[in-house]
Amino acid sequence: MLKRLLFAVLMAFACAAQAVVYSLPWGPKPQFVDTNGAPMSSGTLTFYAAGTTTPQNTYTDSTGSTANSNPMTLNSRGEPANEIWLTGGVSYKMVLKDSGGSTIWTVDNIAGVNDTTGSQDQWVAGPTPTFVSATSFTLAGDQTATFHVGRRLKTTNSGGTIYSRISASVFGASTTVTVVNDSGSLDSGLSAVSYALLSAVNPSVPVQRDDTFRVADDSDPTKLLAFQLSSVSTSTTRTWTVPDLSSTFVGTDATQTISNKTYTFSGTHTGAFVNSTASGHSLGGAYDSTGSGVISLIGGATTGAALLKNSAGSAANVGSIWNAATSTDNKFLSFGTEGSFTERGTIDYNRGGTAVRYNTTSDARLKIKNGPARYDPNWIERVASSIHDVTWKGTGYRTDTFVAQDLYRAEPDAVKRGDDSAEIGADSEIWGVDPSKLVARLILEVQALRRRVADLEEKR
């Protein structure tokens, strides 16, 4: 009875000493050849724990009782002396070297055939890299199919592990791989590179559908953001480029406040600011002395800054200007020139006189007084010669009024020149008259007339 018990104990220890093993993916006794197809005689195979340089045992047969030498030297046929069996549940790194000790390749994360207890890493070990720069390295042979643009990489450097994305991969005498690093840089201690298990070209991950893709708030997962692409044309990809700044999305179906924003438009735009309701939309803010305001509309060298149009053709205002001040004069518009906005005129409401004033620049600080005004006794006749009995084309309205081209010869300061084309077209510059420019000389004419009247009365 005691002998039977002792035998059972010894058998249990023997079984416990044996590892559960699985064959190499290439079979238990693979052959290795060089680039010429000749057996890699006297080459070596070394096995490590996956992702490390820690030696890891392999076994001579399926019983897992006897470990192989590590490294293993290949015979004249390029085969290991014994079969190779891997421990179940363990991932290996396998390094093949030629008889001179040069690394031919490294394969990481190897598990035995049918070993369901092993784990698969997301990174696959690649060939030994040669450092070139902080963002590039070379690989022996043509590796462009594996190391293609967009694929993720993990490299081992003196400064630690660097994660990158391939931005260029070109084969010449060797494959030069250029990367964009997530952070940090490659360094001269670059010793290993692994590529992502998933390819960047036609990966197995499906395109994310808009009815399933959601972004959740980090503190409240019930707050979700969804995208809807139903308005995009069939077989069309739309690109949304994010500016290099932190910002807030502005929607069309909600009232939102937009502040400190400069919008630059190019090309032709229709309805940049649209009154889409009968009551209109309000924009709040205030004009300041620099010429800045709620909205700045800036035209080009040959184009205007804005067009205000009532496209419905109704009697409603094209636009309204409202200054809500109740105790001071109300300024409605300022007209300015120069790069730093020099005010040249205004339209305002004189509260004391209950009248709207149209003001052109007449500030004494902008003028040099040369002496009394110069009276020209023939001026009134020249100006009068520009007044004609006219009928307006299009309306048929008949009246006595100025003709700008004629007035320009008598008083050019009162005329805004247009072009000299024979007929008015779509791009014509219309001539105009500013009667206010005649007021000063009319006052001089009245003054001279009063003096003549006074002289005549004294002679009676």
Topology, pairings included?
Blueprint (H helix, E strand, L loop, with lengths): L1 H16 L3 E3 L20 E6 L22 E2 L11 E3 L4 E6 L5 E8 L12 E3 L4 E4 L2 E4 L12 E6 L2 E12 L3 E7 L10 E5 L18 E2 L7 E2 L104 E8 L4 E9 L4 E6 L18 H6 L2 E5 L6 E5 L1 H7 L4 E2 L15 E2 L5 H21 L1
Antiparallel strand pairs: 1-4, 2-3, 2-5, 5-6, 7-13, 8-9, 9-12, 10-11, 10-13, 11-12, 14-15, 16-17, 17-18, 19-20, 21-22
Short structural description:
By secondary structure, the chain is α+β, with helices and mostly antiparallel strands.
Explained architecture:
By secondary structure, the chain is of the alpha+beta class. Among the domains are: 18-120, Tailspike Protein, Chain (Beta Complex); 124-196, Thrombin, subunit H, CATH 2.40.10; 328-371, no CATH class; 379-420 and 429-446, no CATH class. It contains four helices and 22 strands. The protein has helices spanning 2-17, 379-384, 404-410, 439-459, and strands at residues 21-23, 44-49, 72-73, 85-87, 92-97, 103-110, 123-125, 130-133, 136-139, 152-157, 160-171, 175-181, 192-196, 215-216, 224-225, 330-337, 342-350, 355-360, 387-391, 398-402, 415-416, 432-433. The strands form seven sheets. It has a seven-stranded antiparallel beta sheet, with no helix packed on it. Strands 3-2-5-6 form a four-stranded antiparallel beta sheet, with no helix packed on it. A three-stranded antiparallel beta sheet has the order 16-17-18, with no helix packed on it. It is rod-shaped. The relative contact order is 0.05. Mean pLDDT is 80; it is low at 5-17 and 269-294.
